[in-house]
Amino acid sequence: MKNYMYCLALIVFCTMKLHAQTVGVGEVSAIESKAGSIEAARLRILQIESELPQLEKLWQDKLQKLRSEIEQIYKDRDNLIADMKAGARCSKCNEWKSEFEKKGQNFEKHLGEVKGYAIPATTSELETARKGFSEKIAILKVQLKNLEKGDNTILKKKEQIQKLKDDNDRLCQEITLHSRNYEMILLNDSKAKHKMWSDELMASAVKTLISDDKITICKAKIPRIEKEFQNLSEEIKQKLKNDNEKLLQSKNNSISANEQKINTIQTLHESRLLQLQVQLQELEALKNGLQKELSSDSIEARLEMTGKQLVVIRDSITEIEKQTRDSIALLEAENKKLNAEIWALKTGLPNEQQKALLPLKEKRDAKKKETELLHAAAISELAENKKSFAEKTAQCQKNNDVYITEISMECTRMYAAGQKVGCPVYNSIKGTVVSNWNETATCVKAVASLAKPYSTNVFNAYCKGQDSYMSSYKSFLASLSSEDKLAVKEASNADWFELMMR
């Protein structure tokens, strides 16, 4: 028995050393220890029970001996009373005939040898003898009655057996309780482990989602940059066109004004020239008339004066013509310049527009290049995050498999210990942990793969209310511009996006 218990303890010790243990291993050890105690107690019970037959025989012998003693005392009493009544007592030694007979001696022979004679007992002696026998018989009957109730050694052995059995029943209940405690401890521990692993996986899944959304945002941003450029380009081109048209109108108005001035100058010139020509004609007519009357001094003086007037008028006509030509030439030159500027405005508008758009194009190209770089970085980041997520998923699955193996071994130990001593043990925690992890892993995978519009239901039943894992993703969405949010929404599951935006 001792060798068996030693071997059992050694096996358990080696098993514990070779394999990792869960936080509930104390309950397993307690079950194995209590099962060992039950086995030891059962062996002790067998040992005690094997001693009972001999003890029973000794007890029965004691009973028989007491009964025989009582019976013998009855006989001795009856014989003695008979002798006392018959006068069968030696006068010399005061011993009764029955006492000699017990010794195997002849009473009559004894009397002859001692020269004595037989004498009877007195009434007082009879009463004393009866009382003495009664007391002996009463004492022996009490002893017999007490002994009939059971032998103290046997009773103690049976009490010991019962106590061992009661202790075993209690230990068996405790084994069941330990197995239930083990399941409760492992359930809480597994939930904590699963939460830790799922938090780690969810953080990795969120990184994957964010990388995916960055790609979506970059893809949507490039057309927006181009559209923004086109809109601003149209605004700038239209503004330049409007400014050009206003300038053209201004220059055309200046040309029209100059042409009006030329017409005015020509009209004034013609009017003044006509007046001077009339005066000139009148003076020439006067001169011609005076030349015919040259005989008179007064006529000569008038002629000279008329000639001077003619020179003045002719000079005035020449000056007026010169001024008119110069004024018209200036205005015509200005109009020529204006027409050249109008031509330049008309033909130079596209170049001016392209020149004005050049900084905008550079800004657009810089934004597009930056977005393309971000897009490439996001693609690389997504690949890395997917790889990391896959590795973390595999590692967490491996951790859970190791954990399940530990639980399985400990459950096997508990079941074996309980079965060996016939005590019921709880044995459902392994299935519960496997089921819980499968649901947790499915939840995380759903978040990682179903956030985009491939399904109408992202969170399964187990995941319901688990969106608290997504706080970092919600923060990311909250930081986006309205245009970027719209791009992510269009590429995501509608219910999912609305849930994340709450």
What's a concise summary of this model?
With 502 residues, the protein is an all-alpha fold.
Protein model, in words:
The chain has 502 residues and is mainly α. The protein has helices at residues 2-18, 25-86, 97-103, 107-114, 123-149, 152-292, 297-421, 429-450, 471-478, 482-490, 494-500, and strands at residues 89-90, 118-119. A two-stranded antiparallel ribbon has the order 1-2. Helix 6 runs parallel beside helix 8. The longest helix is centred in the middle third of the chain and has 141 residues, at 152-292.
> What integer value in Å does the Rg equal?
69 Å
Largest sheet: 2 strands, antiparallel
User: Can you tell me the overall shape?
Assistant: rod-shaped
Q: Which oligomerization state do the chains in this entry correspond to?
A: single chain
Mean pLDDT: 83
Q: SSE layout and pairings?
A:
Elements: H1 2-18, H2 25-86, E1 89-90, H3 97-103, H4 107-114, E2 118-119, H5 123-149, H6 152-292, H7 297-421, H8 429-450, H9 471-478, H10 482-490, H11 494-500
Antiparallel strand pairs: 1-2
Helix pairs in contact: 2-5, 2-6, 2-7, 6-7, 6-8, 6-10, 7-8
